[in-house]
Design goal:
This protein has 1 helix and 6 strands. By secondary structure, it is an alpha+beta fold. The protein has 2 domains: 40 residues; 68 residues, Sandwich (Immunoglobulin-like), CATH 2.60.40. Strands 2-6-5-4 form a 4-stranded mixed β-sheet, with no helix packed on it. Strands 1-3 form a two-stranded antiparallel sheet. Strand 5 and strand 6 form a beta hairpin.
Length: 130
């Protein structure tokens, strides 16, 4: 009888240990799955393909955003000064996947790619050296 009781106790202990192991593995799997789910819901902002903006263009900050996933732009439309050549930092405010307000900064380049043209009526006269 004592042997039988010891054997039953060992079986019960083994079942409990096995059950704890299975529950622990199940919990680890769920935690990993939740981490992967959170990663896929991260806010992603996609800009237009070409951030070289022609000088004297009329363009605003929101024209430069191609797409936003898992978020929302909260910045107001602001026109960008394109009268001066060179790089400019543009800041956009958005709500992320957790509904928190965040800043997103990127750089554009104001360029002049248009070749100059000289127009005149019939005749052009220039003086050299004066």
């Amino acid at each position: 009888m004592k042997r039988r009781l010891k054997k039953q106790t060992k079986i019960i202990i083994a079942i409990i240990i096995l059950l704890i192991l299975v529950l622990t593995i199940f919990r680890i799997i769920l935690l990993c799955k939740n981490k992967n789910t959170n990663l896929t819901k991260e806010t992603k902002i996609t800009l237009i393909d070409n951030l070289d903006i022609e000088v004297f263009s009329e363009i605003n900050n929101l024209d430069l955003i191609k797409d936003i996933k898992n978020g929302e732009i909260t910045s107001e439309k602001e026109y960008i000064d394109t009268n001066t050549l060179g790089k400019q930092e543009i800041n956009i405010v958005y709500l992320n996947e957790n509904n928190e307000e965040k800043d997103y900064t990127f750089t554009i380049d104001i360029v002049d790619t248009e070749k100059p043209t000289i127009t005149f009526d019939k005749e052009l006269t220039t003086t050299i050296g004066k």
